[in-house]
Amino acid sequence: MEPQLGPEAAALRPGWLALLLWVSALSCSFSLPASSPSSLVSQVRTSYNFGRTFLGLDKCNACIGTSICKKFFKEEIRSDNWLASHLGLPPDFLLSYPANYSDDSKIWRPVEIFRLVSNYQNEISDRRICASASAPRTCSIERVLRKTERFQKWLQAKRLTPDLVQGLASPLLRCPSQRLLDRVVRRYAEVADAGSIFMDHFTDRDKLRLLYTLAVNSHPILLQIFPGAEGWPLPQYLGSCGRFLVSTSTRPLQEFYGAPPDQAADLAYQLLGVLESLRSNDLNYFFYFTHIDAGMFGVFNNGHLFIRDASAVGVIDKQEGSQEATRAGENKDIFSCLVSGCQAQLPSCESVSEKQSLVLVCQKLLPRLLQGRFPSPVQDDIDSALAQCGDSTRPDPEVLGAASWLKHILRPLRTCDSRFAYRYPDCKYNDKF
């Protein structure tokens, strides 16, 4: 039986028709926390039905069958911030929401539900899609996107090649190599038989999902192709579709700006280590940030720092070389304009320097963690290293050298105790930690 909507929810009923394809709200089929008594099972079922009907998941054909929808429908993802009995919805202006996840209904762990683009961007994107086909303000987004020239090329393609992603605004695809694109296809988790570099096993809808995700926000793709389980500084991918994603929960770095000096030193040391691993790794990919803010980094409960938002991360293949993704406005279409203006131009790949991410971090993040936190002369040394590391006029070797010097200063300022569970108690017995 379909649930009855309250006055506030009923006022939103016209929005159902706009959710034919991509679920632009994150409040999908939320239910009660894992500790809920069995007497509230009926309320859980109400929440399930409410999320399915009100939020359009039963109409969202492009998302049906994806890992994220399966987890919502099987109630493997639950939130205790709002209850089904009141048909409550979360605030629609937030970019992330806390929840719990379990694949066995016994052990639950915190996760975050991320909105990959804001509500405002959603509305602008939908209008652009409809306008591109001279359609009314609301239209079948899937039908419009299927008719585009780019997607017709995708339908015919057996392999994802650089020409198929030219013009997309994602930094990941700014200078794509064939090796990188093969990795995207081989590790794409939303198809039944992942593992091949060819797209023979992709359905039409699989191709549309992948293309749309690459065009809107490449963060979910990076989590899949460079997983944390293999040592990459990224949280676990738990599923995505369209404009929302679920991944392992972290606390944003800005929450630690007032942390004790030893914790601040540890986080700064880790942050420099993350950038070092992105610059130099066994796979010979060079990762860089196009811009940086504290919300892009997060800290797990064990004290381990990870990249929380990789949407601004670009990748250059140092082994195979890369091709420029966009030249003089070539291959611009509606997929190029979903989250930014169609006239936006990405800088040349050759303009990306080794020092780029370090300069941004030393200018914008590390001073908030480290300045005024330590006694002299240690603080003087830290300030001097930060000034050199954040100086964009210095050549690459000098900036990299300043970062290395800063890591050397910070290392003995870290302590070894249970607050840093990611390296404790190993740090008691091994200087490596």
Automatic annotation (TrEMBL):
<protein>
    <recommendedName>
        <fullName>FAM69 protein-kinase domain-containing protein</fullName>
    </recommendedName>
</protein>
<keyword id="KW-0732">Signal</keyword>
<feature type="signal peptide">
    <location>
        <begin position="1"/>
        <end position="27"/>
    </location>
</feature>
<dbReference type="Pfam" id="PF12260">
    <property type="entry name" value="PIP49_C"/>
</dbReference>
<dbReference type="InterPro" id="IPR020519">
    <property type="entry name" value="DIPK2A/B"/>
</dbReference>
<keyword id="KW-0964">Secreted</keyword>
<dbReference type="InterPro" id="IPR022049">
    <property type="entry name" value="FAM69_kinase_dom"/>
</dbReference>
<feature type="domain" description="FAM69 protein-kinase">
    <location>
        <begin position="211"/>
        <end position="389"/>
    </location>
</feature>
<comment type="similarity">
    <text>Belongs to the DIPK family.</text>
</comment>
<dbReference type="GO" id="GO:0005576">
    <property type="term" value="C:extracellular region"/>
</dbReference>
